[in-house]
Amino acid sequence: MTTSDTEAAGAGGHGGHEGHTLTIDELAARAGVTVRTVRFYGTKGLLPPPVIGPRRVGRYGGEHLARLALIEELQHQGMTLAAIERYLSRLPSDLSAHDLELHRAVVASWAPETVERVGREELGRRAGRPLTDEEVDRLAAMDVVVPDGDGYRVDAGLLRLGVELLDVPFSPETVLAARTALLAHSRAAARDLSRLLRDAVAERDARDVRSLSAHMHPLVVQALLTTFQRSLRQELREWLDKESGE
Q1: CA angle centred on 21, ends 135 and 1, rounded to 5°
Q2: Taking the complete model, does pTM exceed 0.85, yes or no?
Q3: Closest C-alpha to 109, from 185, 67, 62, 161
Q4: What's the rounded mean pLDDT across residues 5-33?
Q5: What DSSP letter does each residue of 4-68 carry, written as one string?
Q6: Would the pLDDT of 10 be above 60?
Q7: Which residues contact 90 (CB under 8 A, 6 or more apart)?
């Protein structure tokens, strides 16, 4: 057994756990960081300890990968390690990989849209896993990636969420219909909010308006995300209650 495969007994964990299938080497490779970085984040408390499986081998899961992606995004936004520690310390300790991806998407939305051109190998690295031809075609159908010669144009802020949609048991047509509905309603909400903000700051200096807009953007995005999550949860609960009552 190699040192890189095994975590110290003091790292925590209580036996095997479904979904924790990555060794530290595999986690580092999937996240595009070094094993040393993973260990460093662990000692700083930025990553939870692995689950200790058979032969005391540390196993990591999707929540570790998602947390590494969130840390990378926070660094991309220019946050210091101390600021990242403070940010992560405010998050609930039991967030799922999906919840962490939503947080990363919100953080990514603070920055202007960044479309990059990448090759097939780099696309897989950015996605966090190797992609089959069929999966790349589905991402293209969802406008997450755009074929460009022998490479692809991709918005990094959308890619991770697009990859998660690959595992959703819905047809591409259903996903596209959902995307169309979300875009229509989000643009309508953006227009209404923009109108309200313009009216509220109509008498202010242009420089103040830009500063206020930059400050409000992440707050508005977080508010929209929270409101949508609660509304969707309520809609699903009512639908399931109706189905169970029939």
Answers
A1: 130
A2: no
A3: 161
A4: 63
A5: GGB--GGG---S--TT--B-HHHHHHHHTS-HHHHHHHHHTTSSPPPEE-GGGBEEB-HHHHHHH
A6: no
A7: none
- What DSSP element (H or E) covers 191? helix 172-200
CA dihedral 141, 65, 230, 200 (to 10 degrees): -80
> Whose CA is closest to 23, among 39, 6, 41, 43?
6
Q: Is 153 left (phi over 0), alpha (psi -120 to 50) or beta?
A: beta
**195: Cα separation from own chain's centroid:** 29
CA distances from 159 to 75, 76, 122, 143 (A): 18, 16, 12, 10
DSSP structural state of residue 152: E
Q: Mean pLDDT over all residues of the chain?
A: 76
The 3-class SS string of 79-97 reads CCHHHHHHHHHCCCCCCCH
The per-residue pLDDT for 2 is 40
Please name the residue that has the structure tokens 């047509």: 173
Counting residues of the chain whose pLDDT is more than 70, the rounded percentage is 74
Q: Residues 6 or more apart from 30 whose CB is under 8 A from it?
A: 22, 65, 128, 129
* Cα–Cα distance measured from residue 2 to residue 242, given in angstroms and rounded to the nearest whole number: 54
Joined together, the tokens standing for residue 12 give 């925590």
* Alpha-carbon 174 to chain mean position: 21
